[in-house]
Design a protein that fits this description.
mainly alpha; 10 helices
């Protein structure tokens, strides 16, 4: 599937921005999913499958970057990543299987609702300075159970909509008292497994476009490296507020 040149340029620019969002604040890959849905005639399964395939690569690069900066070398980071990944893959297969039965209009409505919800939550948290709703210790049995449930739920949503893991994992972990950079780092590892199993499920249904995956995947990887550097150099509060606002605008455009 080869889009017209103007559409291809738009997809590349969106993908670059999305990659930076993935490793800076988590929500980012959703822009690629939204752009593929809005700018191409691809089916919901192909949109989600293609996006998921690119998130495997972004997760690998993001994981390597955050390991270099130390967030994934500690016991807590490794434990979070392992639990989220193990339960996320189960949910991803469930979500991807459900997607293959969705009409395009229903998929568009669900994606728009998801984007709007995440955007509003991000903006509300930053504007009101909302604190963590709970302090979960992943080294206790109760803490591991909570993280496992979160991982499965994120896997289902990520597999169903093709939005990857960080967009939900980072906000969820921060709400549970996890430091921002640690949450972003753990989400990169989860993305590899969650998106990998989702992409494999879609590929089994012939719903992955290699040409589109290459078109948006390469600029995403550039953005991932840029985002990782930004995450360690600038405060993320303003960036998250801007990102939340853009998510809401994208959601409105999808249903307009």
């Amino acid at each position: 599937m080869t889009p017209p040149i103007d559409v291809a340029v738009a997809l590349v620019l969106v993908a670059l921005f999305a990659g930076a969002g993935i490793t800076t604040v988590g929500p980012g890959g959703v822009f690629v999913t939204a752009a593929l849905f809005a700018l191409t005639p691809a089916s919901p399964a192909t949109v989600a499958g293609t996006a998921s395939a690119t998130f495997v690569a972004t997760g690998l690069v993001g994981s390597y970057a955050y390991r270099r900066s130390g967030e994934l070398t500690g016991e807590r980071g490794r434990l979070l990543a392992a639990i989220l990944s193990a339960t996320g893959v189960l949910g991803a297969v469930v979500g991807a299987t459900l997607n293959t039965r969705l009409p395009r209009s229903v998929f568009g409505g669900l994606l728009a609702a998801f984007l709007a919800t995440v955007g509003v939550v991000i903006v509300a948290r930053e504007r009101r300075g909302l604190a963590a709703v709970a302090e979960i210790d992943s080294e206790t049995a109760r803490g591991r159970a909570v993280v496992a449930a979160v991982g499965f739920a994120i896997g289902v949503t990520g597999g169903l909509l093709g939005v990857g893991g960080p967009v939900l994992t980072v906000p969820a972990l921060v709400l549970l008292g996890t430091p921002m950079l640690l949450a972003v780092a753990a989400a990169q590892v989860q993305s590899v497994f969650l998106s990998g199993f989702a992409a494999a499920t879609y590929a089994a249904h012939g719903a992955v476009s290699p040409s589109l995956a290459a078109l948006v995947g390469v600029p995403q990887l550039v953005g991932v490296v840029v985002g990782w550097r930004l995450a360690h150099r600038i405060p993320t509060a303003r960036l998250k507020s801007a990102l939340g606002g853009v998510l809401v605008l994208v959601a409105i455009s999808l249903v307009a």
